Amino acid sequence: MNIGIVENDEQFGVFLKERLESWKEVSSVHIWPTGEMMWRDSKLPGLDLALLDIHLPGLSGVELAGMLSEKYPDLKKIMLTSLQSDEIVFQALKAGAVAYVLKSEMDDIQEVIRIVLNGGAVITPTVALRVMRHFQRDKSTIQDLSQLTVREKQILEELSSGASPREMAETLHLSIHTVRQHIKNIYSKLQVSSRAELGKRLKQMGID
Known about the structure:
CATH topology of the largest domain: Rossmann fold
Largest sheet: 6 strands, parallel
Number of helices: 10
Strand order of the largest sheet: 2-1-3-4-5-6
Order of helices and strands: EHEHEHEHEHEHHHHH
CATH superfamily of the largest domain: Response regulator
Distance between the termini: 46 Å
Radius of gyration: 24 Å
Shape: elongated
Number of domains: 2
Number of strands: 6
């Protein structure tokens, strides 16, 4: 098995390289500090597996994963990171990564590699919990917004953009009394009592 590592932290890269080289199934381990250097290297086509740091100078690990997926679709890609951003997890998976591993959870990296090479996918426990919470939050958001009428959703959109009740009335061709009643209904359904609280509630729901 031929493995490539893209890691700009030299100490961590050497640690990982030495650990993988001690594994009898591994024939070679190549390491590059940037995605650009890996992309230009003649050794790239011979790799079976790539371990990519997400936070790289220049070309990011996610961008590199996407490029590798297009040119080398059979190459398995494992993302390595200390970041726990939900959005980065989803971007990496969309780019073709089949595993997402935190650098603080590397004890089982050999088992992760075995699973990946056998056609499986792996997300380490901490990341998996974040993904679950993300989807639970999305479900809650859908349920909350489903309570609103079409007109209330229009008013909510205007509120989110910072429009005043008078501006909303002009835009939506409603009386200001009707607009204020819709706002009152929105506050009640989303369980807030002010525009400031509404802003916080929308942020919690992932709506800017």
